[in-house]
Amino acid sequence: RFWLPLVLASLPTMATGEEMPPALQDSWGDFWLFRFFVNAAGYASIVVPGFLLIQYFKRRNYLETGRGICFPVIKSCVFGSEVKSVHQEDGSLPPRAEPTESSTARQVFKLLFCAAGLQASYLTWGVLQERVMTRTYGATETDPGEKFKDSQFLVFMNRILAFTVAGLYCALTKQPRHGAPMYKYSFASLSNILSSWCQYEALKYISFPTQVLAKASKVIPVMMMGKLVSRKSYEYWEYLTAALISVGVSMFLLSSAPNRHLSTVTTFSGVVLLAGYIIFDSFTSNWQDALFAYKMSPVQMMFGVNVFSCLFTVGSLLEQGALLESLHFMARHSEFTAHAVLLSVCSACGQLFIFYTINQFGAAVFTIIMTLRQAFAILLSCLIYGHTVTVVGGLGVAVVFMALFLRVYARSRMKKRSKKLPPGETPVQKV
């Protein structure tokens, strides 16, 4: 409960860093496309040998012929138990526990606790994300300061803490028997790393409100990925709300005047990075949805994905020599160290609040809370960092959030209808 006041008290300090124009902050070595290929080469140096090893063990039929001390590890990583759960309704999250004779006051307290935890975690995370990626550190009257440029290091910081928290949670609580081959987490991990990297990098070229609205519109590529990856079908209202979201986002983006401050101009690089974020994130959610066909808890999913995320990011950082550079930057600027650590804490705690909220109140309540969080994040960013929104842009924001709430309402109605269907009839799958 003390996080938000603490962060709000430090906001004047956060906003004091000087913002650098995108055109001046990047040399060719720091340009996002170059960094993307360098990072991808680092991941490939781990993925390709891993792929070859997996194919080798499968061709050797290691599951039948393998022996020795390494057999359990290789079996878990390459083969798993291959036992899928057939009792999960939609292959995503386990059914939430129904409250047993809990008083109304207790339920209200739990709901307020979940809402406050989600808002504090992700609003603080959003403010810090914009501060770290768009402002300088160590600026004085004579020294303009320096800007932190390595988004991959921030991804690594987030993942190492999430991995630790999920590992401790799994060790201290009873979890379902794990059956999925470990290597299957690497696909979701790789796309998750790339989506997070694109998200951080995009803030160098576009404003935070633009990024939030673009993230709200990711339901469109999620639906497309759902058709391609999972062969899902969708209702008419899902296509309608997706179209409304597209209209609202377009109104907001087109309302940006060309003479606006550089931080609010949507550049081509920003658009490409946002598209990359949405595509990678859409793949992540659909791949995780397929993995939930195995009997596992959300925290086990969090642990498995972050194991590979830590491996990929630390390997790439070490190959580039960027890990030591980032640590030296932390040593030079204690303020950045505090921001990076708090950013990681908010990310890890936010994920735990997500699991707890969905388990206690269901996905509909969680979606409403997170939709409100997106609206508050835009307002908070405009207040702290001085972003301006025109009347047309404001209407576009209103259209987007109206469509999001319409999706929540329609989805809840569909779930009520699906409970009344005959036993042999199943509802249409939805995102």
From TrEMBL:
It is a multi-pass membrane protein. Keywords: Membrane, Signal, Transmembrane, Transmembrane helix, Transport. Its main location: membrane. It is found in: Membrane. Residues 1-17 form the signal peptide. GO terms for molecular function: 3'-phosphoadenosine 5'-phosphosulfate transmembrane transporter activity. Belongs to the nucleotide-sugar transporter family. SLC35B subfamily. PANTHER family: ADENOSINE 3'-PHOSPHO 5'-PHOSPHOSULFATE TRANSPORTER 1 (PTHR10778:SF13), SOLUTE CARRIER FAMILY 35 MEMBER B (PTHR10778). GO terms for cellular component: endoplasmic reticulum membrane; Golgi membrane. The chain crosses the membrane at residues 33-57, 108-128, 153-172, 236-255, 261-280, 301-318, 338-356, 363-386, 392-410. It comes from the Eukaryota. It comes from Hemiprocne comata. The gene is Slc35b2. This is Adenosine 3'-phospho 5'-phosphosulfate transporter 1. InterPro entries: EmrE-like, SCL35B1-4/HUT1.
